[in-house]
## 1
Amino acid sequence: MLTIFENAEHKNVMFSDLTSGHMVQANQHIIVHNDEAMVLDPGGHKVYSKLFSGLSDVTPSKNLKHIFFSHQDPDIIASANAWLMISKADAYLSELWMRFIPHFGVDEFVISRIHPIPDEGMIIELGGAPIKVIPAHFLHSSGNFQLYDPVAKILYSGDLGASIGADYDVVKDFDEHIKFMEGFHKRYIPCKRALDMWVNTAAKLDIDMIVPQHGAILDTPKMSSLFIDWISNLSCGLDLMGDSFPIP
Ligand code: FE
C-alpha cells in the first residue's frame, strides 16, 4: 500500500500488488475524506478479498460510501456484486454500461445502488469534498470517466497513462518510461481525436499527479506535464491502421 497524498482530513492510497498470475497488473485506489471513503476500480473476484482487508487498514470499512467504476472492463468491475453485498455503498458507472454489468452477476436487491453516470459527468460528494467525475470517452472505453480529486489535485486517469511491465510504482525517468506505455496506448486508444479532447480538458485542471489504473504513477506536476506533452504528440488506434482489415 502506497500513500500518495495525505493531510489532516484527506488521504489517497494505492494498491499495486494485489493482482497475480495471468491477470493484467492493476492498481486499486482509495480516497478518504473525513470519515467517508471511496474505492476506485476495485477489480475482479481474486482482488476483492485482499482489497477489502486493505481498506480496513486505511479506514473502518463501514466508512465506505462510494464505489467508482471508470468503465465496464472485468479488471474494473467484475467484483461489483461482492462490494455491494458487503457494504451499503453507492456505486457509479457510465449509463452506457448499466445493462451489461448484470452479466457479471449483480443481485436484484443491490442493483439499485449502481447509479448511471450521465455522459457529461457528475460530482460525487465525499465527506464534503466534491470529487469530479470527468468524461473521458473513448479513452479507451466508449463510456469512460476519470476522477479529479481537487483536494489532492490528482487526476485518476483510468487506462490513460497505463503502463505494462515496469517494476516500479512511481515514474522517475519519463523518457525511459515511454516504452512501457507506448504499446498499450497505440492499440487500446481508438484515435487521436479522443486524446486531443483529453489534452484540452486536462489543461483546465490544476494537476499535481496523474494516477492511472495500470502501472506507475506520475506523481509531480512536472511528470504530469511531460505525460500530457507525450500524449499530445501520439498517434494511436485507427490513425495507425490501413484502409481495410486483413482477412485471414
Ligand atoms: Fe479497460
## 2
Amino acid sequence: MTTPSSSSAAQPPICSTMMQMPLSLNHLLERAGTLFASNEIVSRLPDKSLVRHSYGAFYQRTRQLAQALQNLGLQKGERVATLCWNHHAHLECYFGIPAAGGVMHTLNLRLSPEEIAWIANDAQDKVLIIDDVLLPLYQQFAHLYHFEKVIVFPFSGAAVPAPFTDYEQLLASTDTQGFQYAPHAEDDAVSMCYTSGTTGRPKGVVYSHRSTILHTLVGCLGDFWGLKGSDVILPVTPMFHANSWGIPYGAVMMGVKLVFPGPHLHPEDLLDLMTAEPPTLSLGVPTIWMGLIQAFEAAQTTQPGRWKLPAGMRSLVGGAAVPEALIRAFDRHGIWILQGWGMTETSPLCTVSYPKSELKDAPMDERYRRAAMAGVPVPLTELRIRGEDGLDAPWDGQHVGEIQVRGPFITGSYHQVPVSEDKFSADGWLRTGDVASVDALGFVRITDRTKDLIKSGGEWISSVDLENALMAHLDVAEAAVIAIPDPKWSERPLACIVLKPGRAQGQAPRPEDFAAHLLQHGFAKWQVPDRYEFIDAVPRTSTGKFYKLKLRERFPA
Ligand code: ADP
C-alpha cells in the first residue's frame, strides 16, 4: 500500500524470516531413529521365513553402512549400485548411500546381463551391493563391467564367497562414533534409476534430496498413500522400479511397519504373506493383482479359508492401465484400488484416481468408471494435453493429445543425454509419449502410449479401452490388443486373449461373441477387432507390464 509518507523513501524488499535448511533424506533417517525405534520392518527371506528388524536397528545399521562407504573412500556423487530384492538391507541402501554422499543406483534384476552391464557402465557405478542369491546373475556380466568393490548381502544366510565383501561383516566391524553425514545441498543427487528401455535405450533419471522429499510429502497426503503411523505397507513394486514408487521414503518418514516380500512374488506367496501379516496399504502393477485375485477366487472353492484378503486395505495400482473389472473384483472383497499414473521420469507419482469431493454422491458405476481412469494431477505437478496441432487441448474429456508435465519432481533431462525435442518441449515440459484426454473434473484418461495407438482408416482406436472391455468378459483372464498392418485400413486391432483357467480353447468364445460383447460396451463396429489369438500368457516387461513389442513380433501381420 502506498501512503504519502512511505512513497518518498524506497523500502528495502522484505525477506523471509525462515531458516535456510536444505531438504534432506538424512532428516527422515534421524526422525525414524529418534521417534520410531520400536516399530517393525519385516522381510521375507529366500527360504520363505520372516525376519524382523526394528526401526532402531535400521537406523543403527544404515549409519554403519554410510560410515563403511565413507571408510572405503566413496566420494561425493559417486554411484553405488544395488542389485537386490525388496528387503530391509535394500532399505538401508536407500538411506545409507546418500548419507555417505553417494548416489544409489538401483539396477533392475530382470534385465539381461548385457543390459545390466550397459546401464552400470553408463552410470559409471563404483560399488555394487548385491544379494547373494543374485550372484549367478552377476557372474554373467562381471566380465562386461568392473565395479571397484562388490559387497554381498547374505540374504540366504550362506557364507559370502571370496573375494567379495560380506555386507553383514562390513556393518558389524564399523563404528559410527563420530559419524558425520556428507555435507550436501538440497539439489544434490541421492538416487538414480533407468527407464526400462521399452522405447529405446534405457536412460538415467537422477533424483535429488529436494525432489525426493517433495514427492514423499505429496505421496503421503490423505487422498494418495494417506499414510498413518498405524499402517502396514506391503511394497510389491520392486525397489528397482522407480524407487518402489517412493513408498520406502514415506514409510521411514512416518515410521510405518513395512512387510517386504523378498523374492516371493507369485500370487500364492503373496496371499500367504498377506494372510500372515495383513497389510493396510499395498503397491504393485496390475498384472500382480490380476494373478492374485484369480488364485484367491479359485482357492475359495478348492481350499476355502486358506487365505484371507485384508478387507479395508488400500491398494495403489499403476504402471499400466488398471481394468475396471479388476477394480470391481477387489471391491467385492472390501479392497479399494487407487489407480496411479506416472513414469520413472516423474518420481513417479503424477496422477491418482481418488474419489474427488464432486463424486461423493455419485452412483457406484460412476465411481468404478473414474477409478479406471489415471486420475487427477497431484500437487506440484502441472499437466497439459498437447494436440497434434501443437495447441493445448481443452479439458472436455473428448480432445486427446500427448500428456506433457512439469514440476519439482519431474525430470528436466536425462543423465548424460543431450536434451532433445522428442523428449522435452521447446518450453521445457516433459513429453511423456502417453496419449490422453482430461475431463472437466481434471481426470486424466489414458488412451494409449503413442506407439501402441491403432490408426484404422485415419481414425485412432484405443488399445487400452479394448483391453479393459475384453477383460470384463467372463471367460477372459487377460487381453492385450496390438495393431497389425492392413492394406485397406493401414492398421487393424488384433486381440491376444488369455482364457481363464478351466476354459478350454474348444469352448472359447468365438470372434462374433467377443464382437457382440464389445458392441454392448459401446464400441463402434469399425473399432472391434477382426482377429483374436488365444495365447497362454501375455509376455511381461522387466517391471511386470504387458510387453506388446513381443506380441507385435509374434503376430507381425
Ligand atoms: P517404462 O516406460 O519402461 O514402462 P515406467 O515404469 O517409467 O517404465 O513406465 C511409465 C509408463 O507406464 C507411462 O508412460 C505409461 O505409458 C505407463 N503407465 C503408468 N501408469 C499407467 C496407468 N495408470 N495407466 C496407463 N498407463 C500407465
